[in-house]
Design a protein that fits this description.
Layout lengths: L1 H14 L10 H9 L19 H9 L3 H4 L5 E5 L5 E4 L5 E3 L3 H7 L8 H4 L16 E5 L12 H9 L4 E5 L11 E2 L5 E2 L3 E5 L6 H28 L13 E6 L2 H11 L6 E7 L7 H8 L8 H9 L2 H5 L8 E4 L5 E4 L7 H6 L1 E3 L5 E3 L6 H14 L13 E7 L8 E5 L5 E4 L10 H7 L10 H10 L5 E6 L11 H15 L1
Parallel strand pairs: 1-8, 1-9, 5-8, 9-10, 10-15, 11-16, 13-17, 15-18
Antiparallel strand pairs: 2-3, 2-4, 6-7, 11-12, 13-14, 16-17
């Protein structure tokens, strides 16, 4: 019976079989039924509706049997993707995602104004030097206009099984700060689900250094205090160096996590790493954004100008196999081209073609600093997470989204002078052949990142201890509850706790 349940769970996460619509609160019951050896049923605090406020949830958790309260669960760090945290300026005014009025103005016919993006970088800021006046001000709860609740079901599900969430803004890390808090009765409690909010405009390398500060200068000491508080023992009995950490990273957040694990010694501190929709080898959207722009918020030109000023956009340029396909003489797809976008000559001597067939030089889009950041990112992501006999390898779970139309490659032809001409127009338009659509557009990823890029790390690093889940899911996490998403949360939690 147990094996059948596990098989059903696996195929549900992969193909959507055994489908049933679960709300987030049902995840705790599923975990208790399927994995009683991991989390005993009596240790699930919320079988019914979860209290909306943190203090009420803490009171429920304190009523659990003593052996439940002393379970040494790993601390979880959730790292969101690009545009995943709110930003405010020096005056404390919300700049991202902005107001509904900002978005309404951007959509007005013939409007040259884009208040959403025009406010995102102030004149005194240099993002390539990390000179900023803005700061993160919390996890993005809802996207204006679309009303999509980003990350909601993931955070809710972890809270249902007893995790206490706390948001940490990278810019507000003050040395010596005690991260434990007090409830209304004066009793001390310590969170264990840390939501790492960062300025996603900056380089992922910079934000990785901030992540190292959070984990090694704050959370290790916090973990010792938490275990001493829960067990009533002296904190000297708990080792600071044996704190267990798990990273859950979504989208671009994986770049931050990988940099920390591979080049900043993070592999010594982290037990498990869950990669959700990870652009491990970049995204074609970044290349199109930096060339002609993609009309996501305002006009293409507004989006393009902003993208060239963000180090994080350059770091997301694609470098996976099959990103660029040569155009045959008859116009059909040809062989894969090995084009190294870190080479400045590509940008100085090549061209791109838009939807109207107009040709423009890439040179005016070339940014020397941006390509330097991309080159370093590519070198870093090509490495393996270090693994030694004295330290168990970091266990990894790849969550790969598929079956959502996405531009994973673009046609490239050569000019008479031998330069490249990139066709960055929309392949979904009728002027492109079915062969091109099938190769570069149909069912090629999660709507934002191609399967090749998401799987890149696993395919190139077979020696790493890893698992993989395939989901028919969009790139966003935690929006509308679906059977696939909910079943995947059960997999997340079992992977986290076992």
């Amino acid at each position: 019976m147990y094996k059948k349940l596990l098989l059903c769970l696996f195929f549900t996460s992969v193909l959507g079989a055994c489908a049933k619509h679960y709300e987030a609160r049902d995840v705790s019951s599923l975990v208790a039924k399927l994995y009683p050896h991991i989390l005993p049923p009596e240790c699930i605090p919320f079988e019914e509706e979860r209290p909306s406020d943190t203090l009420s949830r803490i009171r429920h958790i304190k009523k659990l049997p003593k052996h439940c309260r002393t379970i040494e669960r790993p601390q979880i760090i959730l790292i969101h993707g690009i545009k995943g945290s709110k930003l405010e300026n020096a005056e404390g005014v919300n700049v991202w995602p902005g107001s509904l009025l900002d978005h309404a103005i951007a959509k007005l016919p013939y409007s040259n104004s884009c208040p959403v993006l025009d406010k995102l970088i102030e004149p005194r800021e240099d993002l390539f030097s990390a000179e900023t006046v803005m700061r993160p001000s919390g996890l993005l709860e809802e996207i204006p206009v679309s009303k999509q609740r980003v990350y909601k079901s993931l955070v809710d599900s972890l809270e249902y099984i007893g995790y206490i969430a706390k948001e940490i803004d990278a810019a507000a890390l003050n040395p010596g700060k005690d991260l434990c808090e007090f409830d209304q009765t004066g009793a001390k409690f310590c969170p264990d689900l840390w939501i790492y909010n960062y300025d996603w405009r900056l380089s992922n390398s910079y934000n990785a250094v901030k992540l190292k500060l959070l984990i090694e200068d704050y959370l290790q000491d916090h973990h010792v205090k938490k275990m001493a508080l829960q067990t009533g023992e002296d904190k000297s009995k708990f080792s600071r160096d044996k704190s267990r950490f798990i990273i859950i990273a979504h989208s671009m957040g994986n770049h931050i996590a990988e940099h920390y694990l591979k080049t900043l010694g993070g592999y010594h501190k982290v037990d498990k790493f869950i990669s959700i929709s990870a652009p491990l080898m970049g995204s074609m959207d970044a290349f199109r954004m930096l060339t002609k722009g993609i009309e996501q918020t305002c006009s293409q030109e507004h989006d393009r100008k902003l993208a060239t000023m963000l180090p994080s956009t350059w770091e997301l340029l694609p470098w996976y196999s099959g990103a660029f396909i040569e155009v045959n003489k008859d116009g059909s797809p040809g062989k894969e081209l090995s084009i190294d976008l870190t080479d400045p000559k590509i940008w100085e001597e090549s061209f791109y073609k838009d939807e109207q067939g107009k040709v423009y030089p890439l040179k005016d889009r070339y940014h020397k600093k941006g390509l330097e950041y991309f080159s370093y990112t590519k070198q870093r992501l090509s490495k393996q997470i270090p693994c030694f006999a004295s330290k168990p390898c970091v266990k990894r779970l790849y969550v790969v989204g598929f079956d959502k139309n996405h531009l994973s490659c673009i046609p490239v032809s050569r000019t008479k002078q031998g330069y490249y001409l990139f066709d960055v127009s929309d392949l979904s338009q009728s002027k492109h052949s079915k062969d091109w659509k099938k190769r570069c557009f149909w069912s090629s990823g999660d709507g934002t990142v191609s399967i090749t890029s998401q799987m890149g790390g696993a395919l190139r690093k077979l020696s790493e201890p890893s698992q993989m889940i395939f989901l028919k899911a969009e790139h966003a996490v935690g929006g509308k509850s679906t059977p696939e998403a909910t079943e995947s949360l059960v997999n997340f939690i079992s992977f986290l706790l076992k």
